């Protein structure tokens, strides 16, 4: 997948060909791989829990799209904001993990909070109103996600506008499926951000499908990054299967935004591993057999499996000499269907971390029934 930059050209301060990933240490590279395992294990664990009947509610899998989350989050400052949607559930607990997964000051939700949310327990940030991404946290700098796709981009733009006015340098990353770029509010918000040069980086996760609608019925151009042309802002295409390419493109956009030059769009091309949600599952392969005239949905799934973000990252680490070929085969989560994986396919610290969240959630209480009618109107008012 080639990288294209639409006008205006951004250019880098270093001038030379040095990429942001070239400044990452061996430890960073290994930490990034570990985070890919973490995002993947969260997803497969939930899929398995649901299949075993230990979990209810719809799951929107991020399987095979993890490089977008890990690569974009890795270079953020604690004070930056994110605005995740349904496909980005791991982002809520993976924000600000670079300096340690468990440090108390980390600006990301805890795995216990996230699992509490999925299991609809009293401990959940959404207080059991929902089992998925309709949560946010001012304290952790996470914009509250809503069902109205692209509807949170204006909120994100407003938050960093306010921060700028208060002398801050925070950047916000907004995550969007390619389908939601057709929403009117997407254009209004990015136009506003462009006019005011706001530090808003819009990530487009192009997994080629918006529910059952294929790319060619969503947009007339091949690259959704071209949306940027209409606002006179940079639009870049990243290989969404390559965590380090995502890191490069997003970091360039983040630095550009932080320096006051304004918003950018980064399109990450990826593959949706399953149906839209688990209620849809692989039936998508039947109701929409082709992505375009030449590629079938099944072929797309296969291409995604073959370019699993974990195997792409491992290959890079071996090339760099940061991982031996033998070490690279120690865990084998990549290229597998969620239910084909076992705990042995993941590093033990990854399994333990998620297990902590699952155990906390399954042991937590459900909220009292009378809460169901609360917080609809202002409490205590007629
Ligand atoms: C404004 C709006 N229209 C329709 C929906 C219903 N809906 C939820 S997810 C979805 C598909 C979104 O596709 P895309 O933006 O490509 O994200 P993906 O699910 O592929 O990650 C649709 C149509 C919605 N939530 N909001
Ligand atoms: Mg999509």
Strand order of the largest sheet: 1-7-8-4-3-2
Number of strands: 8
What low-confidence regions span 5 or more consecutive residues with pLDDT below 50? 1-8
Sheet of most strands: 6 strands, mixed
SSE topology string:
EHHEHHHEHEEEEHEHHHHH
Quaternary structure: single chain
Any idea how many domains? 1
Mean pLDDT: 92
Count of alpha/pi helices = 12
Bound molecules: thiamine diphosphate, magnesium ion
CATH superfamily: Thiamin diphosphate (ThDP)-binding fold, Pyr/PP domains
Q: How would you describe the shape?
A: globular
Estimated helix fraction: 25-40%
The Rg value, from CA coordinates, equals 20 Å
| The first-level CATH class name | Alpha Beta
Terminal residue distance = 59 Å
Task: Give the strand content.
Answer: 5-15%
| CATH fold name | Rossmann fold
Walk me through what this model shows.
The chain has helices at 26-51, 66-73, 89-94, 111-118, 153-165, 184-195, 243-258, 284-287, 297-306, 309-319, 325-328, 348-363; strands spanning 5-6, 81-83, 172-177, 200-206, 209-210, 213-214, 235-239, 264-269. Helix 2 (66-73) crosses helix 7. The strands form two sheets. The chain has a six-stranded mixed sheet, with helices on both faces. A two-stranded antiparallel ribbon has the order 5-6. The protein has one domain (22-361): Rossmann fold (3-Layer(aba) Sandwich), CATH 3.40.50.970. It is α/β, with parallel strands linked by helices and 382 residues long. The longest helix is centred in the first third of the chain and has 26 residues, at 26-51. Helices cover 35% and strands 9% of the residues. It binds thiamine diphosphate (TPP) and magnesium ion. Thiamine diphosphate binds at residues 87, 147-149, 177-180, 183, 205, 207, 209-211, 272, 276.
């Amino acid at each position: 997948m080639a990288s294209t930059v639409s006008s205006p050209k951004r250019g880098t301060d270093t001038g030379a060909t040095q990429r942001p990933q070239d400044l990452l240490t061996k430890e960073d590279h290994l930490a990034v791989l570990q985070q890919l395992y973490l995002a993947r294990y969260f997803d497969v664990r939930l899929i398995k829990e649901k299949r075993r009947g230990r979990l209810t509610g719809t799951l929107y899998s991020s399987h095979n799209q993890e490089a977008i989350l890990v690569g974009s989050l890795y270079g953020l400052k604690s004070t930056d904001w994110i605005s995740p949607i349904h496909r980005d559930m791991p982002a809520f607990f993976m924000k600000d993990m670079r300096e340690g997964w468990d440090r108390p000051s980390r600006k990301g939700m805890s795995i216990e909070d996230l699992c509490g949310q999925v299991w609809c327990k009293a401990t959940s940030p959404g207080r059991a109103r929902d089992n998925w991404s309709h949560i946010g946290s001012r304290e952790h700098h996470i914009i509250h996600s809503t069902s109205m796709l692209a509807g949170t981009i204006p909120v994100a733009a407003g938050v960093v506008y306010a921060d700028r006015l208060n002398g801050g340098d925070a950047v916000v990353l907004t995550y969007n499926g390619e389908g939601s770029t057709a929403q009117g509010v997407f254009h209004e918000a990015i136009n506003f951000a462009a006019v005011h040069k706001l530090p808003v980086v819009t990530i487009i996760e192009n997994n080629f499908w918006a529910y059952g609608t294929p790319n060619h019925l969503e947009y007339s151009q091949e690259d959704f990054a071209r949306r940027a042309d209409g606002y006179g802002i940079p639009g870049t295409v990243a290989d969404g299967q390559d965590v380090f390419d995502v890191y490069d493109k997003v970091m360039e956009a983040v630095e550009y935004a932080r320096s006051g030059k304004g918003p950018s769009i980064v399109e990450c091309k990826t593959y949706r591993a399953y149906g839209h949600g688990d209620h849809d599952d692989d039936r998508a392969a039947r109701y929409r057999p082709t992505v375009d005239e030449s590629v079938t949905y099944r072929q797309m799934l296969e291409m995604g499996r073959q370019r699993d973000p974990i195997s792409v990252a491992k290959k890079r680490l071996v090339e760099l000499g940061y991982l031996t070929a033998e070490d690279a085969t120690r865990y084998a989560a990549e290229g597998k269907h969620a239910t084909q994986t076992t705990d042995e396919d993941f590093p033990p610290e990854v399994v333990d971390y998620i297990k902590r969240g699952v155990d906390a959630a399954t042991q937590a209480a459900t909220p009292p029934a009378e809460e169901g009618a609360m917080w609809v109107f202002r409490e205590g008012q007629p």
